[in-house]
Specification:
Layout lengths: L7 E7 L18 H9 L1 E3 L2 E2 L5 H10 L3 H4 L15 H7 L3 E7 L15 E5 L9 E4 L2 E4 L4 H14 L6 E6 L36 H5 L4 H4 L2 H4 L9 H36 L6 E7 L18 H4 L3 E4 L8 E3 L3 E2 L3 H9 L13 H5 L10 E5 L12 E5 L3 E6 L17 E6 L17 H18 L16
Parallel strand pairs: 1-8, 1-9, 2-11, 3-12, 4-5, 4-8
Antiparallel strand pairs: 2-10, 6-7, 9-10, 13-14, 14-15, 15-16
Helix pairs in contact: 1-9, 5-9
EC number: 3.1.6.1
Keywords: Hydrolase
Organism: Microbacterium azadirachtae
Length: 475
């Protein structure tokens, strides 16, 4: 398959959309025909992993193709300076028309506003669900309506106005981010009981202190703003937890419904214009999200539900329909992949890998044998997840909780004794029991500790001073 022209690029990104709430990933709680259609027309990535499961750092990774330690975007309060090269600035320099609509969340003002875009309209910080304000090059504008619909409609209007030059448009949604405010048209959806995940009653007995320390339990930490109504007074603690889960999931899935309608509108437009086949259409989220797994909401941890993002991509001119892959890919890879499809050289400092061979070749070279992750926002005042980094391979996952904010913005001032966790994902897919101290895994532990050290050297990251230097290291 070959394309006669440089492809248009339509990149839809959502905030906190778990793979478990997408039909093509096997959702048992909702349907998403718009997103599923992209997967059916192209490739579904089953092991798409983020390098830092937090909104601001992840968005920086998508744009710059670099890890958090390279971009210096490590927490929600460290913003992207606009002197960084991004796939947008590279596309713009190569003659692409470029636009951005929706959630930026990378800072505002002369040093942080979007650059490389012919047009942009972005939400301040988290933005609002109803009648939201947008920042534009001409100043702030408040628009009437529902934020997901507004972002989609303005992106469509911009796409309609483009000429023959190839374009790239980022349609980056706020939804389904907390506090999960759905459009009234979806108020009657998901009124039947939503099944509880198998680990909803997890007591964290097989893990270390960090899982116990986090304040993300649905039973305990959803607020009045999240729930929007009081639980029935006659419910006991366990029953109230289930009631809270139902309320949370109802509104979360209703927000997803509006996103999926927007995705359908975008792909319908491309089909109507005869451009779907020569457009790279991509849907992703900035990380995963807990939908009651381990009793939690939110993200942050390196556990699978948080680490794994949904990622589907279609480009019928070059990518065969109906594919899926379990290759270890990362949000850091997206920038180079899009530039490769566009025939544009990637800036020298990008640290990801192009996925074009994986998407187009019959027998592609493996992308990587291990994925590196680092979460910096230690013990923040709302969630209290410890800072940690780790490595994930096909079967195993090693995590080192160094438990120190290192003075970074939005981190707690208290440090804690470090801890390790090791999981055998083949035998323990829900990550319920760490085997770090199990003698049967001594060789695996040693191998992964060295792999983690080597990855940090390869990527230019610095191990925390508390991490022991592994035995047998060669550099």
């Amino acid at each position: 398959m070959s394309s006669p022209r440089r492809p248009n690029i339509v990149f839809v990104l959502t905030d906190d959309h778990a793979s478990n709430a997408i039909g093509c990933y096997g959702s048992v709680v909702n349907t998403t025909p718009g997103i599923d259609a992209i997967a059916a027309a192209g490739m579904r990535f089953d092991r798409a992993l983020v390098e830092n499961a937090l909104c601001t750092p992840s968005r920086a990774a998508f744009l710059t193709g670099t890890y958090s330690h390279t971009s210096a975007v490590t927490t929600l309060a460290t913003h992207l300076t606009n002197d960084h090269e991004t796939f947008i600035t590279a596309l713009k320099a190569a003659g692409y028309r470029t636009a951005m609509f929706g959630k930026w969340h990378l800072g505002h003002g002369p040093e942080h506003d979007p650059v490389g875009f012919d047009h942009w309209e972005v939400l301040p910080d988290q933005g609002e669900y109803f009648d939201p304000e947008f920042f534009t090059p001409d100043g702030p504008v408040r628009r009437e309506g529902y934020v997901t619909d507004i972002i989609t409609d303005h992106a469509l209007a911009w796409m309609e106005a483009q000429g023959d030059e190839p374009y790239c448009v980022l349609v980056w949604h706020k939804a389904p981010h907390r506090p999960w405010l759905p459009h009234p048209r979806h108020a009657d959806l998901f009124t039947d009981p939503i099944p509880l995940p198998p680990t909803f009653d997890d007591d964290y007995d097989g893990r270390g202190t960090p899982a116990h320390h986090a304040t993300m339990r649905i039973a305990d930490y959803l607020t009045d703003i999240d729930l929007k109504e009081d639980p029935p007074a006659e419910l006991g603690y366990a029953e109230r937890a289930v009631w809270k889960y139902q309320r949370y999931m109802q509104d979360y899935l209703r927000c997803v419904a509006a996103v999926d309608e927007g995705v359908q509108a975008l792909t319908d437009f491309l089909h109507e214009k005869g451009r779907f086949d020569d457009t790279v259409t991509i849907y992703a989220s900035d990380q995963g999200f807990y939908l009651g797994e381990h009793g939690w909401f939110d993200k942050r941890f390196m556990y699978e539900e948080s680490l794994r993002m949904p990622l589907v991509l279609s480009y019928p001119a070059r990518v065969a329909a109906g594919g899926s892959t379990e290759a270890l890919v990362s949000n850091v890879d997206i920038a180079q992949t899009l530039l490769d499809f566009a025939g544009v050289a990637a800036p020298e400092g990008m640290q990801g890998r192009s996925l074009v061979e994986l998407l187009t070749a019959a027998d592609p070279t493996p992308v990587r044998d291990a994925h590196y992750y680092r979460f910096y926002e230690h013990d923040d005042h709302m969630h209290h997840v410890w800072a940690h980094y780790g490595v994930r391979t096909d079967r195993y996952k090693l995590i080192y909780y160094y438990a120190d904010g290192m003075g970074l913005p939005n981190t707690g001032n208290t440090s804690y004794p470090p801890e390790w966790e090791l999981f055998d994902l083949e035998k323990d897919p829900y990550e319920l029991t760490s085997v770090h101290l199990d003698p049967a895994y001594a060789d695996i532990r040693r191998e992964l500790t060295l792999k983690l050290w080597d990855l940090q050297q390869d990527l230019g990251d610095s191990p925390h001073p508390r991490q022991p230097v592994p035995e047998g290291r060669t550099r």
